[in-house]
Amino acid sequence: MLPTPAGETLSADWEVPWPSHVYHWHREGFDCPSGAETLATGDDFPTQAIRAGERAFGLQFHPEVTHAMLCRWTVVAEERLRMPGAQDRVRQFAGRFQHDPHVSRWLDRFLDHWLDEKN
Fold it and tell me: In tens digits, what is the pLDDT along the chain, a chain of 119 residues?
């Protein structure tokens, strides 16, 4: 995932850059709606994060995923792991352990900024 110039500007004071690798559990994407701005882009789904106005954000990825959620999703919907482009369960967990610390730091700073009444 790559931030756009608008995304870079927005996150300049967060002290944590946008994550380069994020968790997806979907097959759908969306275009940036009229009046919103794209904050981050990706390969398979070009629109990864948007902002509409000052306080409304949309994320195509799942920064909130926990170990328990990943366990549940990869068991309850394990048939999705066999779909074209999907990663198997082992790679799902390996990627989470590798990238989750940065995504968690980013999410904490994003939420702090979003919930700050001064912004």
Answer: 999 999 999 888 788 899 999 988 877 889 999 999 999 999 888 899 999 998 899 999 999 999 999 999 999 999 989 988 888 999 999 998 999 999 999 999 999 988 886 65
DSSP 8-state code for residue 2: E
**Distance between terminal CA atoms of the chain?**
25
Q: Looking at the 3D structure of the chain, how many domains does it have?
A: 1
Would you say 39 and 3 are in contact if contact means Cβ atoms under 8 Å apart?
A: yes
Residue 41 maps to which CATH number? 3.40.50.880
Residue (of 11, 13, 54) closest to 35 by Cα position: 54
